[in-house]
Amino acid sequence: xxxxxxxxxxxxxxxxxxxxxxxxxxxxxxxxxxxxxxxxxxxxxxxxxxxxxxxxxxxxxxxxxxxxxxxxxxxxxxxxxxxxxxxxxxxxxxxxxxxxxxxxxxxxxxxxxxxxxxxxxxxxxxxxxxxxxxxxxxxxxxxxxxxxxxxxxxxxxxxxxxxxxxxxxxxxxxxxxxxxxxxxxxxxxxxxxxxxxxxxxxxxxxxxxxxxxxxxxxxxxxxxxxxxxxxxxxxxxxxxxxxxxxxxxxxxx
Length: 253
Hints:
The chain is an alpha/beta fold. The chain has eleven helices and eight strands.
Protein backbone atom coordinates (compact mmCIF):
# COMPACT_ATOMS: atom_id res chain seq x y z
CA UNK A 1 0.00 0.00 0.00
CA UNK A 2 1.45 3.37 -1.05
CA UNK A 3 1.15 6.11 1.57
CA UNK A 4 0.26 9.79 1.21
CA UNK A 5 3.07 11.01 3.45
CA UNK A 6 2.12 14.69 3.50
CA UNK A 7 -1.52 14.05 4.43
CA UNK A 8 -0.31 11.60 7.08
CA UNK A 9 1.79 14.34 8.67
CA UNK A 10 -0.95 16.95 8.39
CA UNK A 11 -3.99 15.02 9.63
CA UNK A 12 -2.57 12.12 11.65
CA UNK A 13 0.31 13.69 13.57
CA UNK A 14 -1.16 12.21 16.77
CA UNK A 15 0.51 8.92 15.80
CA UNK A 16 3.92 10.51 16.33
CA UNK A 17 2.80 12.47 19.38
CA UNK A 18 1.68 9.34 21.20
CA UNK A 19 5.06 7.79 20.42
CA UNK A 20 6.71 10.16 22.90
CA UNK A 21 5.84 7.77 25.74
CA UNK A 22 7.85 5.05 24.01
CA UNK A 23 10.99 7.17 24.03
CA UNK A 24 10.54 7.53 27.77
CA UNK A 25 10.31 3.76 28.16
CA UNK A 26 13.32 3.29 25.92
CA UNK A 27 15.46 5.69 27.98
CA UNK A 28 17.96 6.30 25.17
CA UNK A 29 21.53 7.10 26.13
CA UNK A 30 23.92 9.31 24.19
CA UNK A 31 26.01 7.38 21.71
CA UNK A 32 23.71 4.38 21.49
CA UNK A 33 22.76 2.96 18.10
CA UNK A 34 18.97 2.77 17.86
CA UNK A 35 16.78 1.56 15.00
CA UNK A 36 13.33 3.13 14.50
CA UNK A 37 11.37 0.30 12.86
CA UNK A 38 8.54 1.51 10.64
CA UNK A 39 9.68 5.10 11.06
CA UNK A 40 7.10 6.68 8.73
CA UNK A 41 7.97 10.30 8.08
CA UNK A 42 10.84 10.11 10.53
CA UNK A 43 9.93 12.52 13.32
CA UNK A 44 10.62 10.03 16.12
CA UNK A 45 13.96 9.05 14.54
CA UNK A 46 14.96 12.70 14.35
CA UNK A 47 14.01 13.22 17.99
CA UNK A 48 16.36 10.38 18.91
CA UNK A 49 19.12 12.03 16.87
CA UNK A 50 18.54 15.26 18.80
CA UNK A 51 19.06 13.30 22.03
CA UNK A 52 22.57 12.32 20.92
CA UNK A 53 21.67 8.89 19.60
CA UNK A 54 23.05 7.34 16.41
CA UNK A 55 19.55 6.77 15.05
CA UNK A 56 18.51 4.94 11.89
CA UNK A 57 14.93 5.04 10.59
CA UNK A 58 13.65 2.18 8.46
CA UNK A 59 10.39 2.04 6.50
CA UNK A 60 9.14 0.03 3.53
CA UNK A 61 7.31 2.95 1.91
CA UNK A 62 9.32 5.10 -0.48
CA UNK A 63 7.11 8.19 -0.02
CA UNK A 64 7.53 8.04 3.75
CA UNK A 65 11.31 7.74 3.48
CA UNK A 66 11.49 10.56 0.94
CA UNK A 67 9.47 12.81 3.25
CA UNK A 68 11.65 11.84 6.24
CA UNK A 69 14.83 12.70 4.36
CA UNK A 70 13.39 16.06 3.25
CA UNK A 71 12.25 17.02 6.74
CA UNK A 72 15.25 15.67 8.68
CA UNK A 73 18.39 15.76 6.53
CA UNK A 74 20.68 15.17 9.52
CA UNK A 75 19.25 11.71 10.27
CA UNK A 76 19.83 8.40 8.46
CA UNK A 77 16.82 6.74 6.81
CA UNK A 78 16.73 3.39 5.03
CA UNK A 79 14.13 2.02 2.64
CA UNK A 80 13.67 -1.62 3.64
CA UNK A 81 11.27 -4.41 4.53
CA UNK A 82 10.90 -5.23 8.24
CA UNK A 83 9.75 -8.78 7.48
CA UNK A 84 13.14 -9.60 5.92
CA UNK A 85 15.64 -7.67 8.02
CA UNK A 86 19.30 -8.36 7.29
CA UNK A 87 22.51 -6.77 8.56
CA UNK A 88 23.53 -4.63 5.58
CA UNK A 89 24.51 -1.02 4.95
CA UNK A 90 23.33 1.20 7.79
CA UNK A 91 22.04 -1.93 9.54
CA UNK A 92 25.36 -3.78 9.43
CA UNK A 93 26.50 -2.89 12.96
CA UNK A 94 24.63 -4.21 16.03
CA UNK A 95 22.05 -1.95 17.63
CA UNK A 96 21.66 -1.17 21.32
CA UNK A 97 17.90 -0.82 20.96
CA UNK A 98 14.99 -0.95 18.52
CA UNK A 99 11.89 1.21 18.88
CA UNK A 100 8.67 0.89 16.87
CA UNK A 101 5.52 3.00 17.07
CA UNK A 102 2.23 2.07 15.36
CA UNK A 103 3.95 -0.03 12.70
CA UNK A 104 4.15 -3.68 13.75
CA UNK A 105 0.44 -4.36 13.18
CA UNK A 106 0.93 -3.69 9.45
CA UNK A 107 3.36 -6.63 9.21
CA UNK A 108 1.64 -9.94 8.53
CA UNK A 109 4.59 -12.17 9.47
CA UNK A 110 5.11 -11.11 13.06
CA UNK A 111 7.47 -14.00 13.80
CA UNK A 112 9.78 -12.99 10.94
CA UNK A 113 9.83 -9.36 12.10
CA UNK A 114 10.68 -10.25 15.69
CA UNK A 115 13.40 -12.67 14.59
CA UNK A 116 14.86 -9.99 12.34
CA UNK A 117 14.87 -7.45 15.15
CA UNK A 118 16.61 -9.93 17.43
CA UNK A 119 19.29 -10.53 14.80
CA UNK A 120 20.16 -6.81 14.74
CA UNK A 121 20.36 -6.36 18.52
CA UNK A 122 23.33 -6.98 20.75
CA UNK A 123 22.82 -9.22 23.79
CA UNK A 124 20.88 -7.21 26.34
CA UNK A 125 19.58 -4.81 23.69
CA UNK A 126 16.10 -3.38 24.24
CA UNK A 127 13.06 -3.69 22.00
CA UNK A 128 10.35 -1.15 22.86
CA UNK A 129 7.20 -1.04 20.75
CA UNK A 130 3.57 -0.06 20.58
CA UNK A 131 1.10 -1.52 18.08
CA UNK A 132 -2.57 -2.17 17.72
CA UNK A 133 -3.74 -4.87 20.13
CA UNK A 134 -6.73 -7.17 20.06
CA UNK A 135 -9.90 -5.06 19.82
CA UNK A 136 -8.16 -2.16 18.08
CA UNK A 137 -10.49 -0.04 15.87
CA UNK A 138 -13.30 -2.58 16.29
CA UNK A 139 -16.05 0.03 15.86
CA UNK A 140 -14.21 1.77 13.02
CA UNK A 141 -13.65 -1.49 11.15
CA UNK A 142 -17.28 -2.49 11.68
CA UNK A 143 -18.34 0.83 10.12
CA UNK A 144 -16.06 0.20 7.13
CA UNK A 145 -17.16 -3.40 6.58
CA UNK A 146 -20.83 -2.49 7.08
CA UNK A 147 -20.50 0.34 4.56
CA UNK A 148 -18.95 -2.06 2.06
CA UNK A 149 -22.02 -4.27 2.33
CA UNK A 150 -24.30 -1.26 1.97
CA UNK A 151 -22.86 -0.48 -1.47
CA UNK A 152 -22.74 -4.08 -2.65
CA UNK A 153 -19.08 -4.84 -2.04
CA UNK A 154 -17.81 -8.07 -0.46
CA UNK A 155 -16.73 -8.00 3.17
CA UNK A 156 -13.09 -6.85 3.29
CA UNK A 157 -10.37 -8.86 5.01
CA UNK A 158 -8.80 -7.23 8.07
CA UNK A 159 -5.40 -5.96 6.82
CA UNK A 160 -3.75 -5.75 10.25
CA UNK A 161 -2.44 -8.08 12.95
CA UNK A 162 -3.83 -7.19 16.37
CA UNK A 163 -2.41 -9.75 18.84
CA UNK A 164 -3.38 -10.45 22.41
CA UNK A 165 -0.72 -9.74 25.06
CA UNK A 166 -0.16 -13.49 25.46
CA UNK A 167 0.25 -14.04 21.73
CA UNK A 168 2.87 -11.32 21.36
CA UNK A 169 4.73 -12.30 24.52
CA UNK A 170 4.93 -15.88 23.22
CA UNK A 171 6.26 -14.68 19.86
CA UNK A 172 8.86 -12.49 21.56
CA UNK A 173 10.11 -15.35 23.72
CA UNK A 174 10.29 -17.66 20.71
CA UNK A 175 12.40 -15.06 18.89
CA UNK A 176 14.94 -14.91 21.72
CA UNK A 177 13.65 -12.09 23.93
CA UNK A 178 13.00 -11.85 27.65
CA UNK A 179 9.73 -9.97 28.07
CA UNK A 180 9.98 -7.22 30.68
CA UNK A 181 6.65 -5.39 30.24
CA UNK A 182 3.38 -5.89 28.36
CA UNK A 183 0.50 -3.40 28.52
CA UNK A 184 -2.87 -3.64 26.76
CA UNK A 185 -5.11 -0.58 27.05
CA UNK A 186 -7.81 1.47 25.36
CA UNK A 187 -6.85 4.87 24.02
CA UNK A 188 -9.83 6.68 22.44
CA UNK A 189 -8.16 9.13 20.08
CA UNK A 190 -9.66 12.38 18.76
CA UNK A 191 -9.15 12.91 15.04
CA UNK A 192 -7.97 16.20 13.57
CA UNK A 193 -10.71 18.89 13.50
CA UNK A 194 -11.27 18.51 9.75
CA UNK A 195 -11.11 14.68 9.79
CA UNK A 196 -13.90 12.10 9.98
CA UNK A 197 -13.98 8.32 10.09
CA UNK A 198 -14.07 8.41 6.29
CA UNK A 199 -10.86 10.47 6.33
CA UNK A 200 -9.31 7.83 8.58
CA UNK A 201 -10.46 5.13 6.15
CA UNK A 202 -8.94 6.97 3.21
CA UNK A 203 -5.55 6.91 4.96
CA UNK A 204 -5.53 3.55 6.75
CA UNK A 205 -8.21 1.52 4.92
CA UNK A 206 -6.75 1.88 1.46
CA UNK A 207 -6.82 -1.89 0.87
CA UNK A 208 -10.62 -1.57 0.83
CA UNK A 209 -10.81 1.64 -1.22
CA UNK A 210 -8.11 1.19 -3.84
CA UNK A 211 -9.45 0.14 -7.23
CA UNK A 212 -12.97 1.48 -6.70
CA UNK A 213 -14.46 3.84 -9.25
CA UNK A 214 -15.07 7.40 -8.05
CA UNK A 215 -18.83 7.00 -7.60
CA UNK A 216 -18.61 3.79 -5.58
CA UNK A 217 -15.78 5.21 -3.49
CA UNK A 218 -17.78 8.32 -2.62
CA UNK A 219 -20.87 6.28 -1.73
CA UNK A 220 -18.78 3.99 0.43
CA UNK A 221 -17.19 6.88 2.33
CA UNK A 222 -20.58 8.48 2.94
CA UNK A 223 -21.86 5.19 4.38
CA UNK A 224 -18.71 4.84 6.50
CA UNK A 225 -19.46 8.16 8.20
CA UNK A 226 -23.14 7.31 8.61
CA UNK A 227 -22.36 3.97 10.26
CA UNK A 228 -19.56 5.46 12.36
CA UNK A 229 -21.89 8.15 13.65
CA UNK A 230 -24.47 5.49 14.55
CA UNK A 231 -21.72 3.65 16.46
CA UNK A 232 -20.88 6.74 18.52
CA UNK A 233 -17.63 7.65 16.78
CA UNK A 234 -18.81 11.24 16.51
CA UNK A 235 -19.50 13.34 19.58
CA UNK A 236 -20.14 17.04 20.18
CA UNK A 237 -16.35 17.47 20.34
CA UNK A 238 -15.74 15.80 16.97
CA UNK A 239 -14.80 12.44 15.47
CA UNK A 240 -12.60 9.89 17.22
CA UNK A 241 -10.96 6.51 16.62
CA UNK A 242 -11.41 3.59 19.00
CA UNK A 243 -7.77 2.61 19.44
CA UNK A 244 -6.67 -0.24 21.68
CA UNK A 245 -2.91 -0.47 22.03
CA UNK A 246 -0.42 -3.19 22.90
CA UNK A 247 2.87 -1.91 24.30
CA UNK A 248 5.86 -4.01 25.28
CA UNK A 249 9.45 -3.85 26.46
CA UNK A 250 11.68 -6.84 25.76
CA UNK A 251 15.38 -7.60 26.10
CA UNK A 252 17.52 -9.63 23.70
CA UNK A 253 18.75 -12.74 25.52
